[in-house]
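subagent[fold] <- orchestrator: predict structure for attached chain, return tokens only, no commentary.
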Amino acid sequence: MIEIAIPKLGLTKKDRIKASPLARKMAATHNLDLTKITDSGPGGTIVKADILRIMEKGETIPEEKVKELREERPDAVMVKEVLESIPIKGIRRAIFDNMYQSLTQSAQISLHTEARAEAILDLRERVTINGQNLSFNAILMKITAMALRLHPQINASVDGDKIHVWRQIHIGLAMEADDDLMVPVIRNPDLKAIREIDREITELINKTRENRFSPDDFANGTFTISNLGFADIDHFIPIIRPPESAILGVGRITRKPVVIGNDVIPGVRIGLSLTFDHRIIDGTPAARFLKTIKETVEDPILMIR
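subagent[fold] -> orchestrator:
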């Protein structure tokens, strides 16, 4: 373990040890105890390479030493320690590259709004069968799919110097799997009943838990929904998943005071955020699309128009 040198009165072994001026400076900067470092320089001298070798090990400072330092040298605990080193590979590499591509190859802008949520709460309660609740994700996916039918320019991707507006609507649902972000896709939710969408979402959740996804589960998405309501998030800025051009972020459903006219009354609200690629989608069409989602959340009967 790397130990941090604690100065003491009088001549110490550290004072007597042979070390180059650079090695001493590096050891002091990184709070390393020269008495614990094996020398490799001429005549038993500790050199720069010896300091670097210790630093590369990434060893932590013993807790008892940290406690001692707090008492004798409060400034010494300003060091930072590596708790865990996570290789960027596999799924994490895919997420890493995908998000970098998203932010460097598109002009992203986000719009935020709130919608009254009483109607979707009522809808969920009315379609409950044998105590099995319909998921809000299924309702929101159906609402979003119908909004995409009304605003097809949002259901698009850019390919070189062309914008492809997709005939089919395939919506990905962001979900967590072992600390990794997965976005499996529901096909054609605009053509399906909400309960069918709900069954497919449940199956995808089970696949996530059991780690039995197939590549087809992620292919050919045209839009994405990311719902962080479970984490008590009201609003956030979602990041587009390439090659798509827009993503809907959904916040929690929460009770709050609402001003109607001159009165303040209890209300239920849900946060909605739309991020879109401003290179191919203008602000006004994006705003109209988000407004359609808001209006349909507030009056789900509009899903059948």
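orchestrator: received. Logging for downstream: The longest helix spans residues 194-210. The chain has two domains: 13-78, 103-304.
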